[in-house]
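With this grant's support, we have settled on a layout for protein records. One resulting record is reproduced below.
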Amino acid sequence: MTVLQIILLVSAVSLLLIATVTVSRVRNRSSDSRQQYKKPAKSTVQPEKPLHPATTGTTGNNLEPDEPAETEPEQPEEHGKAENLKEADGEIAADPKKSARPEEPELEESEEPDRPAEAEADTAHEETETEAVEEARPSLRDRLKKARNALTSSLAQTLKRSTISEETWDELTETLIRADVGLKITDELIEKTKDKTRSSKLKTPAEVVVALQEEIRESLRMDNRDLLKSSNPDKPSIWLFLGVNGAGKTTTIGKLAMQESRSGTRIMLAAGDTFRAAAAEQLAIWAERTGADIVKGAAGADPASVVYDSVASAAAKGFDLVMVDTAGRLHTNHNLIDELRKIRRVADKGAAKVTEVLLVLDATMGQNGLAQARQFTEAVDVTGVVLTKLDGSAKGGIVVAVQTELNIPVKLVGVGEGLGDLMPFDETEFTDALFN
């Protein structure tokens, strides 16, 4: 073989090797391309993710953890609030136990409730509650606040002392006089308290004040403060009311008439004040409120004739009580005082019996009220005193002065505008309310 043939053979082998290597590389690249296209196709088929991956135990690297946005955690507090809001808006709750409501039974035509009767029952109930409020007896201690404050402030300096001295007695005397007890009654009370201090060997001013309170209570003690009525059921009782204008006679009559009528007493009101234009009209209003009958005379008529007609009518109709209003008069007007004596004589001659003559005094008048009481008791036989406006007075000592000096029992006290504010007088309750 020649050299030329050898060179050609080597060249042919080299070309063959080069071609083989090239084809091999091309195949490898094609295979790689096919693998790249197949992988995305396989990755598109993903297994279903469990609802609670924390409980599946899957740890594969190809599985990504669930994102918080895909599964929201439960919020019981917010859920409860939402239910409450729904209930507040009137929506029906999902829970049948909460949403179930008892069905109202259907009424037949014959079972239909009587609406007017219910309305009448409600009205009657309201009236009963109103009467209960009106009848509620007030606390005397609360109503005597002005008098108590005046007394205790005056005693404050005395109570600060540790021993009993002449200054103690001087201060107690001044306190009683300021309270309108009066000089005579004050001297008597102080002397009795001194005797008790010596006999009981009291050591402090505070003990002396307690002893003084007990002496005042004893000076006010009365066996009977009841309002008297006739013992004969066929003969009506007569209560005469007298006093100056503005003392509260007509209002006192109205409140007493209400209290008596509620206890079953049949009442006749006599408008004996024929001088004051509005007196009869005011009494007529009370008659309407209390269900009482009333006898009125013409303006300026003889008051004694009105009383006579009232008594005759009450006896004929079987009434139990005649309450007589009289004209307000000054205790210094002798003509009117004489007329008062005439009214009393006429009332006693009729078919009824005078069992009470009540003097109505304004407690705020103080010692002037005591002067009025003296004149009225000289004109007629006063059986009891009604002290009105006691809640507005800072001088509660007038109670002691009237009863002790005149020996006339204080039977009633007025401590306000309500029906229950006219109450029987009790000496223990009064002294406790005044000192404590």
Summary: The two ends are 157 Å apart (CA to CA). Residues 274 and 298 are 7 Å apart (CA to CA). The first strand starts at residue 237 and ends at 242. The chain has 16 helices and eight strands.
